[in-house]
Design brief:
By secondary structure, this protein is α/β, with parallel strands linked by helices. It has four helices and five strands. It has a five-stranded mixed sheet, covered by helices on one side. The protein has one domain. A hairpin with a 2-residue loop joins strand 4 and strand 5 (135-144). It has helices at residues 16-30, 58-65, 93-100, 107-111, and strands at residues 5-11, 78-80, 87-90, 125-132, 135-144. The radius of gyration is 15 Å and the shape is globular.
Length: 147
């Protein structure tokens, strides 16, 4: 089976790790992960608050799927300065300039240049700060499942 892409927008916070943990908790509570939902991101499960699963924790979910992964942000453990498994690489100012022509990309600029996401390896993710009027406004997380 092939890898599945996923992406999320979340409000900006000073500590990106807290934003990641809140996102993971939101998706867990919504039941938006494999094996609970076969294609979590395609079914927009995170809009719901009625999980139909029997898992007690994110770690329990991850243990149940082993090498397949959850096909969601639940597979991501940390923020990193490099691409590596189970981590989201925070894009640098230089990478923002290379991809978007500016240090301060907006959601609109991201939407017009989404193709770079398809270059991610399985089991990895990226994150970046999106700006509104040159002020941090939200985080964007995107990644690919292991399988």
């Amino acid at each position: 089976m092939g890898a599945f892409g996923y992406w999320y927008y979340v409000p900006f916070e000073e500590e990106i790790e807290k934003a990641l943990e809140k996102l993971k908790l939101r998706e867990f509570k919504a039941g938006s992960f494999y094996p609970n939902v076969f294609f979590p991101h395609m079914e927009n499960q995170s809009e719901k608050e009625n999980p139909d699963h029997s898992f007690n924790s994110i770690s329990e979910v991850r243990k149940s799927v082993l090498s397949t992964g959850t096909r969601s942000i639940l597979d991501i453990d940390a923020i990193s300065n490099e691409i590596k498994y189970n981590s989201a690489k925070l894009l640098s100012s230089e990478e923002n300039i290379e991809l978007f022509g500016t240090e301060y990309p907006t959601r609109e600029e991201l939407d017009n240049n989404f193709d770079f996401i398809h270059e991610l390896e399985r089991g990895t993710a990226i994150c970046l700060v999106l700006y509104k009027e040159f002020k941090p406004n939200e985080f964007f997380f995107a990644g690919y499942s292991f399988d």
